[in-house]
Amino acid sequence: MLQPAAAPRHSAPVSHAEMANAIRALSMDAVQAANSGHPGMPMGMADVATVLFSRFLKFDPKNPAWPDRDRFVLSAGHGSMLIYSLLYLTGYQDMTLDELKRFRQIGARTAGHPEFGHAGGIETTTGPLGQGIATAVGMALAERAMAAQFNDKLVDHYTYVIAGDGCLMEGISHEAISMAGHLKLNKLIVLWDDNLISIDGPTSLSVSDDQIKRFQASGWATIAVDGHDPEAVAGAIAAAQKSDKPSLIACRTVIGYGAPTKAGTAATHGSPLGADEIKGAREKLGWPHAPFEIPDAILSAWRGIGAAGTAKSAAWEKLHAALPAEQRAEWDRRLKGDLPANFDKTISEYKQKLAADKPKWATRKSSQMALEVINPATPETLGGSADLTGSNNTKTAGLNPVKPGDYSGRYVYYGVREHGMAAAMNGIALHGGLIPYGGTFLVFTDYCRPSIRLSALMEQRVIYVMTHDSIGLGEDGPTHQPVEHVASLRAIPNLLVLRPADAVETAEAWQVALQQKHRPSVLALTRQDLPAVRTTHTEENLVARGGYELAAAESGAAKVTLLATGSEIAIAMTARDLLQKDGVPTRVVSMPSFELFDAQDEAYQEKTLGPGTVRIAVEAGVRQGWDRYLGIKGGFVGMSGFGASGPYEQLYKHFGITPEAVAAAAKQRL
Amino acid sequence: MLQPAAAPRHSAPVSHAEMANAIRALSMDAVQAANSGHPGMPMGMADVATVLFSRFLKFDPKNPAWPDRDRFVLSAGHGSMLIYSLLYLTGYQDMTLDELKRFRQIGARTAGHPEFGHAGGIETTTGPLGQGIATAVGMALAERAMAAQFNDKLVDHYTYVIAGDGCLMEGISHEAISMAGHLKLNKLIVLWDDNLISIDGPTSLSVSDDQIKRFQASGWATIAVDGHDPEAVAGAIAAAQKSDKPSLIACRTVIGYGAPTKAGTAATHGSPLGADEIKGAREKLGWPHAPFEIPDAILSAWRGIGAAGTAKSAAWEKLHAALPAEQRAEWDRRLKGDLPANFDKTISEYKQKLAADKPKWATRKSSQMALEVINPATPETLGGSADLTGSNNTKTAGLNPVKPGDYSGRYVYYGVREHGMAAAMNGIALHGGLIPYGGTFLVFTDYCRPSIRLSALMEQRVIYVMTHDSIGLGEDGPTHQPVEHVASLRAIPNLLVLRPADAVETAEAWQVALQQKHRPSVLALTRQDLPAVRTTHTEENLVARGGYELAAAESGAAKVTLLATGSEIAIAMTARDLLQKDGVPTRVVSMPSFELFDAQDEAYQEKTLGPGTVRIAVEAGVRQGWDRYLGIKGGFVGMSGFGASGPYEQLYKHFGITPEAVAAAAKQRL
C-alpha cells in the first residue's frame, strides 16, 4: 500500500512522487515544529493535490486575485499544511518558507486552519467541517451567474474542493450536495479524501454511507479512484471537467501516507508524528533532505507550474482589456465591490417619498419595497430565500429565478436549506462581483449560525434578511418565535444586526448593509404591520448612527428616555404619550444597531442615551446586552422566557410588552 | 386524483375514507376558525395517518405515558392539526373538541406547532424542520438500549415519523438518516409525505434528490406507495416492521387532498382554505357535517381504536408487575428520572478526595474523572461524542460502544454529526429511562443550536459536554475558539450554562446537571490545565449557588471584587494577589452559572457581588451579559473580537487577559 506512486508522464526531470513528497515533508515538519497540527491529511492527499495543482488548476501565484482563477477550497481545513505547502512551492509571494516555519504561531499567515485574508490562494476560511464544500457551491454558482451576466470567456473557471469524511458526515454537506446537483453546477469538482479514518478511529465506528450512491441520488457524476495513482486521479479530473453534472471523485487514500507505523491510523490525524516516526517516514518516502529543505530541482519544478499560470492570467487580462469600455467599467466596479455612483441618491429619493407617504407596513414589506428600488439600481444583488419567498418578501419584480443550466436569473430558490444558503452566500460574496442576500425566519438563524459566524470572521458582505423577528409572528408559537436571537447575533463579532422600526429605517438599514464592504448584516424584520415613525425626511442615514433621538421630550427637560428597536418603537412612542400626559417629559431613542451606536463618539452616545434620565429599554427579546445602556436605575420591558402560540396582539399583552407596562416601569424609577 | 380512496377491508361499518375525512374536516375547520395554520399537510396525509393509527400504532389514550407505547413523531410539525385531530378522535382525555376549537390561541393545548407537554400523545416538540426525524432516531436508539438493559419484552415498540419534503431538505436529516442506517435501527419507520410541494411552490424549484436512492445509500429499506391507497400503505408498514433496517415509506400524496381548486398546490400549505374552498371540499369529500361535528358512528369507530390500546397497555402492566422486585424498582426509578439513592453521597466522597488531592487538571479531564465516578453509579447515563471522544474525554472505563445490532453498550460514537447528536439526545431523554450526555467543542454548539434550543423548550435533561471552551484551545485558531458562545448560550431560556473552574467545581457542575429533571445543561470545559482552587471540602454544592465567594479579602474590608468563571478564576486569583500586595483588599467570586445565581435571593446576590466594591469581571469571551453584575463603575477583561491561532499562553497575553490587566482595570476604578 505504501509503494511510491507510479511516475507520471511528466516532462520535467522531477517525478510526481518527489513533488508530492515535498508536500508531505513540509507538512510533517511544520506540524512537528509547531508541536501541534494535522499531518495525516496532507500526507494522504499529497498525490491528489499534486495532480490537481500541477496538471489542472488555473492559478497565478503572482496574481492571486485574478478573477477567473480556478477556486480551490480545502474543506478539510485541518489539513492546512497541504495548502500552505502548495502556496509556498508554487511561489505565492506572501507564503515564504519562514511562514511555514511559523505554522500556528501568533501573527503567522499559517494559522491552524486556513484563514481567508491571511495569504493569497486561501479562498475561504475552513476548519468547521462541511463549510468548505457548501461555500464552494456558492462559488460555483457565482461563476455561472457572472458568466451569464458578463460573458462565458471572461468567466470560465472551475471550483475544486478537497473534502474529508467529516465534511460528508455534517448535515450541511447534504444541503450543499443537493443544491449543487439540482442546479447542475457542473464546474464544481469535489475530491473526497476517502481514507476510512476519522478522529475516533475507523469511520466504520460511526458511518456506513455509500457516498457514491448518495451523490448520485443528488444528481452528481461520480467516480472512485486510488488516490495514490496519479494517472487515475488525472483521468478522473479530466472526465469531471467534461461532465454536465457536478462531480465527486472518491480518492481512496492512506492517511499519513509514508509514516512507517502510524499511516492508515487516526494517530496521524491531529498530532505531530514525533521525531522517530518522521525519521522513518523520510526513509520510507526516500526523502533524505533536512526539515524545510526542498531540493532546487523539485522547488523549481513546482515554481515552473506557478509561473505557467502567469501566462494564463496575462492572456485573460487581454480579454478583459478588450471588453467594451462601459462593460469593463461595470466589471471593474463590481469586482471592487463599489456600489453604483447614483446609489445613495436613489435611496435618498426613495426615503423622501416614504417620509411623505408614511406607509404602515410590516418591515418585511418595507424591505421588499426597498429592494424594489435597490435591485434595479444594483445589478450585483443576487437574492434568495430558504423556501420562504412569500414570507421573507425577498423576490422583487423582474428578478428571475436561477435555474439548472440557466444562470441568468438573480433569484435563488434555496429550498429548505438555511445552512446551505448561508454558506453558499459566503461563497458568492467571496467569489466577487455579486452581493448575495437571502431570507428565512429570524429564529432559523440558529440553523445557519456556523456560516453566519464565518461571514463575520471572513468580513464578507452577506445580507441576511431575517423576518418574523419576535413573538409578533403570533400563532406559529415558541418554536418559531425568536426570543434570544437578536441578543445572540449581537454577540457575534463583526456582525451588523439591524432592527429597523419602519419603512424609512428599513431603507436606511438596507443602505447601511450594502455599504459594508467588510461586514455581513442581519436585518431583523417584522411579520406584523407597524406605523410610520420617520415622517420627516432627513438626508442623513440616521440608522447609520446605530441609535438616535427619534422623539424629544415635548416640554421641559426629559425625565425619561425610552430605548427601543423595531416593532417596539411604536410601543415606546405610545408610552411616551402616556407619560407626557402624566406630566413626565419623555424622549424616545431608536436603537436599530448596537454595533453602529457603539462606534459613535462617547459624547454622542452619552447625549443620545440621555444623561440623568430614567432609562427603560423595550425589546421583544431577552434583556441580555441592554444593561450597558441602562445605568443603575434602568429598566427593561421584554421577554424572559420562550414565547407562546396565539394572535400577536394578545401575546404582547400576555407577556406584558405594552405602552402601559413601559410607562409603569419608568414611573416606578422616577 | 381526487377520487375517494378505495374502501379498506375494515370490519367496522365506518369506512376508511370516512375516518380519514374526519381528520381532514377537523383540520380545515380548525385552521379556518383560527384564521391561521396549515391545512394542506393533514388533508394530504389523513389516509396514511388513519392507516397508521387504526391498524398499527400501539398506544393507549387513557395512559399516554405508557412506557412501551409506540412513539409517533410528526416531524412536519406545521401539520399539527393532524395529530390534534387524531388525539381527539382516539380519545385522549386532555384533547377535547374545545381544544380543537381553540387552535392557536393562548393557553390552548393546540399550539401552532405540537408542543411537548401540552397534551398526552405529543411525544416531542416539532416545527423547526428536520428536528422530528432526528429526535426520533434518539427514541429508536433509546428503545433498543432499554431493551438491552432490561428486557426486550418490556421494551418492544416502534418509532414512527411523518416527515415532509422540508424535513428531508434540512441538513440534520442527513445526520439522522446516516446514523440510523449505520446503527440499523430497524424499528424506526419514516413515512415521507411525498407531495411535491413546498412553500415556494413545486419542489422542482429547488430540489431534485432521488430520496429512495438516498435512503438506500444510508442503509435503509425503502418502498414507494400511493399515500391515498390504504392497503398499499398498510402493506408497506407491515413490511417495514419486519425489516432489519430502518424503513422509508415514500407516500405520494396530494397536499390539501379534497380541496376542489387548491389541492396539489402550495396555496393549501400555510393558510386557511377560505369558506368557499371548504364548502367545495365538503362536497368533494362527501362530508356534509357541520364544522367540528363528527358523526357518532365515525367518532366511535375512532374511539374503539383508542380503547383497544387500553387492553394492550394493561397486558404490559402485567409484564411490568412480574419483574423481579429489584429490577422493577430500578425500572421505576429510572422512568421517574430519580437519581440513585446514594448518588449525592458518591459525589460528596469524590469531592472530599479532590479537595485533598488538589489535581491540576484541565476541566475536560476533571469531567472525565467525574464521569469515572458517575457512570458506574448511574446506569442510566448514555454517553457519546461527535467524533471527539479523546478530546472531549467523554468515554470512561467500562463504557462499551453501542453497535449496529448490539445496543447493550453505553457509549455512542455519534460521528461528525453535532446536530444529529443533539437531536438524538433529545429523543433519548424524551423516551425515558436514560440520561444522555454528548460532547463536541464548545464552538460547535453553533452546529447543534436548534436542537439545544429544543432541549430547553422541552425541558429535557440533556447534558452537553462542550470542551475547548475559549482561546485556551490555542493553535486551532479562531474557527475553533468560542468567543461569543458562552454568552449566546446564556441567552437561551431554561438552559443551564456551567463553566467550572477546577476539579471540584466540575464535579459539582455534573451533580447539578444530573439533578435537573427539567432542564438541559451545557458544561463549558477547558482544553488547558488549571490549578485547583477549591481545596477545602464543603458538603454543600457551591456551584449550585451559581456564584459564591471563592476567596475573601485578606485583610480589612474588600475594595475590589473580581468575578470570573472557569479558566479565568486562576487569573482572578493571581490578580487578587497582585492587588493585595499593593494594599488593595480583594475578593474573588466564582460565577460558574448565571442562571443559578440569578435564582438566589436578592440579599445573597447583593452580598456575593460585594456592595460598594469595584467589580471587575474576567472571562475569555465577550462582555455581553456581564454588565448587570458590574454596576456603574464595573470593568470587564475579556474578548472583543475573534481569537487567533497560537499557543494559548501567548494568546492570553496577546488579548490582554492577564492578572496584570485585571489588577490595572481594578486600580483604574478605585
UniProtKB/TrEMBL annotation, chains A, B:
Key word Transport present in the record?
A: no
Q: Which organism is it from?
A: Ferrovibrio terrae
Q: Give the Enzyme Commission number.
A: 2.2.1.1
Please tell me where Mg(2+) binds in this chain. Answer: D165, N195, I197
Cofactor annotation? Ca(2+); Co(2+); thiamine diphosphate; Mg(2+)
Positions with a binding annotation for substrate: H38, H269, R364, S391, H468, D476, H480, R527
Tell me how the cofactor is bound. Binds 1 thiamine pyrophosphate per subunit. During the reaction, the substrate forms a covalent intermediate with the cofactor.
Role, per record:
Catalyzes the transfer of a two-carbon ketol group from a ketose donor to an aldose acceptor, via a covalent intermediate with the cofactor thiamine pyrophosphate.
Kindly give the InterPro entries that the UniProt entry links to this protein: THDP-binding (IPR029061), Transketo_C/PFOR_II (IPR009014), Transketolase-like_C_2 (IPR055152), Transketolase-like_Pyr-bd (IPR005475), Transketolase_bac-like (IPR005478), Transketolase_BS (IPR020826), Transketolase_CS (IPR049557), Transketolase_fam (IPR033247)
Of which family is this protein a member? Belongs to the transketolase family.
- Matching CDD domains: TPP_PYR_DXS_TK_like, TPP_TK
Quaternary structure, from the entry: Homodimer.
Give the gene that encodes this protein. Answer: tkt
* Endpoints of the signal sequence: none
Q: What GO terms are given for molecular function? A: metal ion binding; transketolase activity
GO CC annotation: what is one? cytosol
**Residues covered by region (Disordered):** 381-401
Note the superkingdom of the native organism.
Bacteria
Q: Which residues bind thiamine diphosphate?
A: H78, G127, P128, L129, G166, N195, H269, F444
- This chain's protein is named Transketolase
Coiled-coil segments, which residues?
A: none
